[in-house]
Amino acid sequence: SRTLVIAAGQLGPVARKEKRSSVVSRMTSLMETAADRNADLVVFPELALTTFFPRWYMEDQAEIDAFFETEMPSEETLPLFDAARRLGLAFSFGFAEKTVDDNGETRRFNTSLLVAPDGAILLKYRKIHLPGHRENETWRPFQHLEKRYFETGDLGFPVAEALGGRVGMCICNDRRWPETFRMLGLQKAELVLLGYNTPVHYPPAPEHDHLQDFHNHLSMQAGAYQNGTWVVGVAKAGCEEGCDLIGGTCIIAPTGEIVARCSTLGDELITAVCNLDRCREIQDNIFDFAQHRQPRHYGLLVT
Ligand code: CDT
């Protein structure tokens, strides 16, 4: 069987002033714990290296760019790659990516990477469903300016042959969209890695605040089951700069069942033994796309 020990490395709050080196050492300490538990892979949250900076309206580009990475690994993030090599672990994590494209244009994305133990980049994804707004909305207790600071990902929803199976990634708000998981499912993904920063308070519809944990698990469990894939969902959790973020980091089987779950809102590592062959239970039966899917009747989905 194709069995992996998968670890989810939940992070507690990251302060606005916290240095990359401090977050990186919190992450490497979770990697050590993962290695003690014989993990093959550790998954970290969205924008793991910094505080969730889209909660602030900023106009000074230098101030904004201080939250972005221009190289990976950099001097500050190299210890993650060194730890992976030393411990024989693959890892994935999210970060703000600033890059210059072939036309000399500066581009900024909300990105995640899957890195092999030897430092090779196995998979890269740039977030497609950017939530929130573009302008300063002063009525909000905090902003959600992802649409201002990032552009829509331009890499599609790639799936790579990696770690003995087929691996895809998505980021935070992507998990709420069935299209995200179906794009990965149609490529026969067996493992979907995703990180999130989800505030408890949703200013446009505060009547749903008490449902944040429910909607988080509802989306990820449905995505896992309806596509017969393992899902690893990892939070940045806790009270970050006065903003409460949900936890609920979990590992979900292709049946949609949660098999491991964090119980705190701080730095915490959970592991599960994940047999990728279990995807067949779903992908060859109830959701055998070749036999049962009816794309001729789904035209509206792409209009
Ligand atoms: N980071 C991220 O995508 N967060 C959103 C918050 C809700 S929309 C403002 C999420 O979907 O969890």
Commentary on this structure:
InterPro entries: Aliph_Amidase/BUP, C-N_Hydrolase, C-N_Hydrolase_sf. It holds the Pfam family CN_hydrolase. This is Putative amidohydrolase. It is built from eight helices and 15 strands. It has 303 residues and is an alpha/beta fold. It has one domain: Carbon-nitrogen hydrolase (Nitrilase/N-carbamoyl-D-aminoacid amidohydrolase). Strands 1, 2, 3, 4, 5, 6 and 15 form a seven-stranded mixed sheet that branches. Strands 7-8-9-10-13-14 form a six-stranded mixed sheet, with helices on one face. β7 and β8 form a beta hairpin. The longest helix is centred in the first third of the chain and has 17 residues. It is globular and about 55 Å long. The chain starts with a strand and ends in an 11-residue tail after the last helix. The model has no long low-confidence stretch (mean pLDDT 98). The structure holds 4-methylsulfanyl-2-ureido-butyric acid. The site of 4-methylsulfanyl-2-ureido-butyric acid has 10 residues, from loops.
Mean of all residue-level pLDDT scores:
98
The CATH homologous superfamily corresponds to: Carbon-nitrogen hydrolase
Tell me the total number of β-strands: 15
> Share of helix among residues?
10-25%
The assembly state of the depicted protein chains is single chain
Beta-strand portion reads 25-35%
Ligands in the structure? 4-methylsulfanyl-2-ureido-butyric acid
Q: Write the element-wise H/E pattern from the N-terminal end onward.
A: EHEHEHEEEHEEHEHEEEEEEHH
The CATH architecture designation is: 4-Layer Sandwich
Report the end-to-end length measured between terminal Cα atoms: 41 Å
Main sheet: strands, sense, barrel: 7 strands, mixed
Shape: globular
Total number of distinct structural domains: 1
